[in-house]
Design goal:
By secondary structure, this protein is mainly alpha-helical. The protein contains 19 helices and no strands. The chain is globular and about 55 Å long. The two termini are 33 Å apart.
Length: 372
């Protein structure tokens, strides 16, 4: 009869059963094709939204030089620049939506890669399949807006950041910085995602080299994070320079921050618990398959919470769960703080935090896989 130590040694050397590569690639291709069919159908049938009409008339119609000289802080500049070549073929909404569609298709392999880095192949496949047909994500992926591009760039920057923290290599830090800069040029709310990532970097470094799942020293991590911060700082200064030189941005900055249309985000107050909790529930609702309140949303929130608890309980996934929880929750907290400081006229919508959606979905997938 084997002793407990021998049993632990035997279990430690048991092979880890992974899905065959053919099954993984087959599933990914099936998800991509099914997702493409859904998005292509909506590309031509969905009516033009007011936000889409605004971007098409205010930014895509003008040249690159005009957009830079008359820079607006609410302009999704990088998306507009990519969409301009499509406008040469015509001004049909379906044509102008192709950039968002292509970004949405690229999100599928990128989200799978991130999910595999943070958890494992099975959870990554499940989360990718869920995210590819998530109603709110599909809406972003078929709109003449830059939210799909922001989601893609933020997911890709997360992959670069995890690789940088584990390996300490300079090119990963530079990739992280450049992807964040592109995300900022696509939507200024990516700045909140940047803050979230640096909170996580400080948490990672603060754990000490002995506890890091890598061979990198604390000094090399600080050096890489500082280099990335300097590169990102150059990008932020370039955006500030565009705002200062523009004859429309000073007034536009006040128009964007303080507007009669206060958006769907209100600061949380204990005295008005039900109403002010709404934005937090709305973001969870956007990350679910049921746009509304009630039992389905409660069950989905329970699955997300379960996935978080399971992740925290597993030592090898604890660091990944911390990252996902930060990306899911901290942007809401920062957004709430800005809303409280600026005042009741803050122009804020939960869709500005669309890069948080995959975090909720991945945590839910982890909970569903644990239940199965």
């Amino acid at each position: 009869m084997k002793s407990p130590a021998q049993n632990r040694l035997t279990q430690r050397h048991e092979p880890i059963h992974r899905p065959p590569q053919t099954l993984i690639w087959g599933t990914l291709i099936a998800v991509i094709l099914f997702s493409f069919w859904i998005k292509l159908t909506l590309l031509e049938t969905r009516p033009l939204l007011l936000d889409e009409r605004y971007e098409a008339t205010q930014h895509i119609t003008h040249s690159v030089i005009f957009n830079l000289l008359h820079f607006r802080v609410d302009a999704q500049l990088f998306h507009a620049l990519l969409t301009m070549p499509m406008s040469l073929l015509g001004w049909e909404p379906a044509l102008l939506r192709w950039v968002s569609l292509l970004a949405g298709m690229l999100v599928i392999p990128v989200s799978y890669r991130l999910g595999k880095q943070l958890f494992d192949t099975r959870v990554a496949l499940l989360a990718t399949a869920m995210f590819s047909v998530l109603p709110q994500a599909v809406l972003h992926f078929t709109a003449i807006r830059g939210y799909s591009l922001v989601i893609l760039l933020c997911l890709a920057s997360s992959i670069a950041l995890i690789n940088a923290l584990k390996s300490g290599r300079v090119h990963y830090w530079l990739s992280f910085a450049l992807l964040i800069i592109l995300a900022l040029f696509t939507h200024i709310s990516a700045g909140i995602f940047l803050i979230t990532n640096y909170v996580y970097i400080l948490w990672w470094i603060g754990r000490g080299p002995a506890h890091l799942p890598s061979r990198t020293s604390r000094r090399s991590l600080l050096g890489g994070a500082t280099l990335a911060a300097l590169v990102i700082g150059i990008g932020i200064m370039s955006i500030a320079g565009l705002i200062i030189q523009s004859d429309t941005s000073v007034g536009n900055l006040q128009e964007v921050l303080l507007d009669d249309q206060v958006g769907d985000f209100t600061p949380f107050r204990l005295s008005d618990f039900g109403t002010t909790l709404s934005p937090y529930v709305d973001l969870l609702s956007e990350a679910s398959f049921y746009r509304g309140r009630g039992l389905p949303l409660f069950l989905y929130g329970t699955v997300v919470l379960l996935g978080s608890m399971v992740g925290f309980a597993q030592l090898r996934h604890r660091w990944a769960t911390w990252y996902l929880v930060l990306v899911a929750i901290l942007p809401l907290v920062v957004f709430n703080t800005i809303r409280t400081v600026v005042g009741p006229g803050f122009y804020g919508y939960t869709r500005y935090l669309s890069y948080s959606l995959f975090s909720f979905v991945l945590l839910a997938a982890n909970g569903i896989w644990w239940l199965s």
